[in-house]
């Protein structure tokens, strides 16, 4: 068991003929992911990496029965790529590129509302269910199967968190990078909810960071949850001074300025085990046993 | 990307927002002429154009620039040139510039606007709700940051529906909150719609008018203006990209931007090289716990070109503030061996004269280690984030 993707999930790749896409799709195929086709407008009818290429997502879905898409298209094409995925009623779309314009993301977010499609990213390493499916750019060899769900807003700290689950003697059920950008598709709540519904996930590691109020809303949700799975959290960014561009001046749009300490307090208050160092995650996980 | 006040005002004016009559000046003589052009009689405002808020509460480093801040009220036309001369070429320090300050290369001369009161208005994005949010407040001394930190409940936040004119109810809500007279309602609605239009059409990430002045007849005038544009959307705004003022950005930031790396500077002494912002944030937190500040960090992201990576590493190695280097790379997209090649090539050009701790994980980690062993560079090896920070702290202590 796992969340969102497993070895049965049929995946297409939007932008499959690109260099990075080819490189990573080959790796995903080697990993065992059921990639069943690709989409590159104008190249429909050809083959690439021994997979059929289609002009549109709709066609690809009709012919292959795919339910998920991973896109390696450049940032400026992400909006139209997601639009296609939404219109083809895919369950999941994963978009890797960083630097999608804010306005495009505002429009993407309103497209996603009320649609069937869930979006991971942009600016994410993607999603991996160890031993089953890899959609994105994850290094394959650091993951191993297990019962810890990992969800992170920081791409590279996702890998740190995975290494910590291994140090604790465990493995991962599914690993999800939410994305480093200002606006993202799925947030912590979507993923925490899925991990709670997944029997294979026994504990969860979540990695937050400065900016936005994603951790606070997740804490509120978790607090009200009747049956809680244990969550260990780390939040990065304590050393960034307020007003620095990394602190996102736009954050006063939420409720005052939210510091890393505020986030940690909100998570602790909800019953989540908050660690102060990323390398403390493994000991916190060991204590859960 | 940020632009200057006078440029932001010009854009707002194009969208129907009222601004005081003003003109830009690069010399004292131009300032004097500008004053005559914008108003036949005083007073005038002479405003230093640097990209920073709180210019009125700032100070100049140079003594001959006078004791006043960067926003000056000048009553007599005779004094315009003198005030402009004091500020032009001088360095203005504000809360936002850091102690180094920014050099003033031009001043904006404006006709003084008679207003009854002031308020703050801004448009920004609420990240969690992915909505456009209008912010308004009555702010003492125009210090919005102070208010956001101390009494956030005194800032009203109203979500706007993208691409739609603002509802009457929302305008009324804002009018009541700010205790404005009803006759300002139509001007407020117009201002909100104009801001919304600028935001969407120009791909802004934030627009702020601090303050808006309320005139006797209820009309609203933008007395200051700040627009930040979304760097990721500049490709569709060639006209705006031209407004970028390279003097506002440090040489190192410019270089990093050329390679599309993220680069940030702080007040400390350690240079961090990472391939994800989160790694830098986590490393900075650990350093801070040991009482060590970060001078700068560079995020080389998923780089695939080793010459570019070498240039990025050089930016850190040549920063005179850097007394030690901390490198944390978790290879995925990015191959560790490219980073190792980059370190060797950068060090052979500019030398490695400070302790450097290296920690590799992920794609091609072993190959990367071998490259650095062979290079005989004095690298200190670490095998986790925490270990890397401990070892650097130790090395810095030994060096001291």
Description:
The complex is a heterodimer of chains A (289) and B (400). In chain A, helix 3 (78-87) runs parallel beside helix 4 (102-112) and helix 7 (214-223) runs parallel beside helix 8 (260-269). Chain A has two domains: 1-123, NAD(P)-binding Rossmann-like Domain (Rossmann fold, 3-Layer(aba) Sandwich), CATH 3.40.50; 139-289, Succinyl-CoA synthetase domains (Rossmann fold), CATH 3.40.50.261. Chain A is an alpha/beta fold and 289 residues long. Helix content of chain A is 32%, strand content 22%. In chain A, helix 3 (78-87) links the parallel strand 5 (68-71) and strand 6 (92-95). By secondary structure, chain B is of the alpha+beta class. Chain B folds into three domains: 21-111, Dna Ligase, domain 1 (2-Layer Sandwich); 117-239, D-amino Acid Aminotransferase, Chain A, domain 1 (2-Layer Sandwich); 250-399, Succinyl-CoA synthetase domains (Rossmann fold, 3-Layer(aba) Sandwich). Chain B is built from 13 helices and 19 strands. In chain B, the strands form four sheets. In chain B, strands 8, 9, 10, 11, 12 and 13 form a six-stranded antiparallel beta sheet that branches. Chain B has a six-stranded mixed beta sheet with strand order 14-16-15-17-18-19, with helices on both faces. Chain B has a four-stranded antiparallel beta sheet with strand order 1-7-2-4, covered by helices on one side. Chain B is elongated, with a radius of gyration of 25 Å. The interface between A and B is large, with 67 and 60 residues.
């Amino acid at each position: 068991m796992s969340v969102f993707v497993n070895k049965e999930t049929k995946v297409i790749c939007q932008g499959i003929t690109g260099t990075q896409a080819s490189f990573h799709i080959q790796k995903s195929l080697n990993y065992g992911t059921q990639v069943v086709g690709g989409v590159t407008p104008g190249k429909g009818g050809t083959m690439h990496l021994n997979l059929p290429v289609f002009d549109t997502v709709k066609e690809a879905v009709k012919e292959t029965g795919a339910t998920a898409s991973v896109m390696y298209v450049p940032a400026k094409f992400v909006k139209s790529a997601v639009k296609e995925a939404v219109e083809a009623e895919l369950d999941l779309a994963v978009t890797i590129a960083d630097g999608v314009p804010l306005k495009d993301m505002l429009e993407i977010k309103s497209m996603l509302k009320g649609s069937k499609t869930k979006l991971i990213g942009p600016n994410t390493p993607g999603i991996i269910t160890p031993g089953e499916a890899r959609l994105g750019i994850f290094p394959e060899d650091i993951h191993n199967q297990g019962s810890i769900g990992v969800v992170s807003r920081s791409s590279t700290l996702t890998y740190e968190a995975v290494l910590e689950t291994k140090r604790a003697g465990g493995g991962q059920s599914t690993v999800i990078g939410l994305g480093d950008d200002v606006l993202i598709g799925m947030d912590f709540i979507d993923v925490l909810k899925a991990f709670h519904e997944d029997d294979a996930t026994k504990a969860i590691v979540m990695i937050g960071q400065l900016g936005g109020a994603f951790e606070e809303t997740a804490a509120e949700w978790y607090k009200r949850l009747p049956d809680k799975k244990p969550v260990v959290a780390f939040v990065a960014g304590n050393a960034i001074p307020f007003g620095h561009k990394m602190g996102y001046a736009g954050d006063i749009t939420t409720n005052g300025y939210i510091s890393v300490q505020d986030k940690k307090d909100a998570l602790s208050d909800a019953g989540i085990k908050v660690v102060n160092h990323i390398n403390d995650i493994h000991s916190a996980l060991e204590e859960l046993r | 990307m940020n632009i200057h006040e006078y440029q932001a005002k010009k854009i707002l004016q194009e969208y129907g927002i009222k601004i005081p009559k003003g003109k830009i000046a690069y010399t004292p003589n131009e300032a004097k002429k500008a004053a005559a052009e914008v108003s036949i009689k005083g007073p005038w405002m002479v405003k230093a154009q640097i990209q920073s808020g709180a210019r009125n509460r700032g100070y100049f480093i140079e003594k001959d620039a006078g004791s006043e801040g960067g926003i000056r009220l000048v009553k007599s036309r005779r004094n315009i040139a003198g005030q402009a001369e004091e500020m032009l070429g001088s360095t203005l320090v504000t809360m936002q510039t850091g102690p180094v300050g920014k050099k003033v290369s031009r001043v904006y001369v404006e006709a003084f606007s008679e207003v009854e009161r002031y308020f703050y208005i801004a448009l920004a994005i609420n990240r969690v709700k992915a909505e456009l949010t209008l912010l308004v407040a009555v702010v003492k001394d125009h210090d919005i940051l102070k208010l956001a930190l101390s009494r956030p409940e005194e800032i009203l936040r109203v979500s706007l529906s993208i691409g739609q004119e603002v509802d009457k109810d929302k305008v009324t809500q804002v009018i009541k909150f700010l205790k404005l007279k009803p006759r300002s309602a139509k001007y407020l609605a117009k201002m909100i719609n104009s801001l919304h239009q600028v935001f969407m059409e120009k791909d802004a990430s934030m627009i702020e008018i601090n303050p808006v002045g309320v005139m006797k007849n209820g009309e609203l005038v933008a007395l200051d203006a700040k627009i930040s544009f979304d760097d990721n959307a500049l490709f569709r705004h060639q006209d705006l990209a031209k407004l970028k003022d390279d003097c506002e950005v440090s040489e190192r930031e410019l270089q990093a931007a050329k390679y599309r790396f993220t680069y940030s500077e702080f007040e400390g002494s350690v240079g961090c090289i990472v391939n994800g912002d989160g790694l830098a944030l986590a490393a900075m937190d650990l350093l801070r716990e040991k009482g060590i500040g970060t001078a700068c960090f560079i995020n080389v992201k998923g780089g695939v070109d080793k010459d570019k990576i070498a240039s990025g590493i050089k930016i850190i190695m040549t920063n005179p503030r850097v007394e030690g280097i901390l490198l944390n790379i978790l290879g995925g997209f990015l191959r560790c061996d490219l980073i190792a090649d980059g370190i060797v090539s950068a060090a052979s050009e500019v030398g490695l004269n400070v302790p450097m701790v290296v920690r590799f994980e992920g794609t091609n980690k072993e190959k990367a280690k071998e490259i650095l062993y062979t290079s005989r560079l004095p690298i200190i090896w670490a095998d986790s984030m925490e270990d890397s920070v401990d070892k650097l702290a130790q090395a810095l202590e030994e060096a001291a």
